[in-house]
Amino acid sequence: AMMDNRFATALVIACVLSLISTIYMAASIGTDFWYEYHTLSPAENVSEAGRSIWEEFVSKDADEKTYTDALFRCNGTVGLWRRCITVPKNSHWYSPPETDMTTNCISFSLSDQFVEKYIEPGNHNSGTDLNRTYLWRLQFLLPFVSIGLMCFGALIGLCACACRSLYPAIATGVLHFLAGLCTLGLVGCYVAGIELLHRKLPLPEDVKGEFGWSFCLACVSAPLQFMAAALFIWAARTNRKEFTLLKAYRVA
């Protein structure tokens, strides 16, 4: 009974870690704070050309350079699915600069996620930048693969409970390990993509950029997935060993 308790505890902790990492992962995919730009003088910037910046930012033809410039100038935030800027509520020429600010977001369409990135952002004649193109596509696909693997692992875990067997827990552990690798890959791709973009489009002097809390959630999710994987595999393997020893003892 003592042994059973130990395995049960390990499995419960693994399930809790798995659940928390899934919630973190889903939250990070669904929020827009992967990268944030802080403009030191946003209000003046926007009241100069407010409406046109906004119209360019939301237009279907907005290329990477257009929307990145708007992000720089208007306290932009970027997620995996959306980009947001903060603009005055009413950009009339007669309104004072310190008007109410409002945050407006626009989603990346599915075709935006797979569109080619150019060697010079915004210049279609400069050729395709393969590194940035594939990094962007991977950062879009990997989080879904990661969540898919964990959900599949959870299904196998439920079957294991129904069969009252610990053997499938090894498969659940391996799937969680692969999900952790995908999450690590996602974080790596995102950092590399941002670095490469800022080499092409350097930040203006009065703009500061930093990774946001959505990015941090993904960073925390990866080690949780690895810890859950380790616990699942440990419980299943140690239990199998003890079961074999018990059988040998009985036969003897």
TrEMBL record:
Gene3D superfamilies with a match to the protein in the record: 1.20.140.150
One Pfam family hit: Claudin_2
Membrane topology field: Multi-pass membrane protein
Keywords: Membrane, Transmembrane, Transmembrane helix
GO cellular component terms, semicolon-separated: membrane
Subcellular location: Membrane
InterPro entries: CLDN1 (IPR042356), PMP22/EMP/MP20/Claudin (IPR004031)
Transmembrane segments: 140-162, 174-193, 213-236
Main location: membrane
Name of the molecule in the record: CLDN1 protein
Lineage: Eukaryota, Metazoa, Chordata, Craniata, Vertebrata
Encoding gene per record: Cldnd1
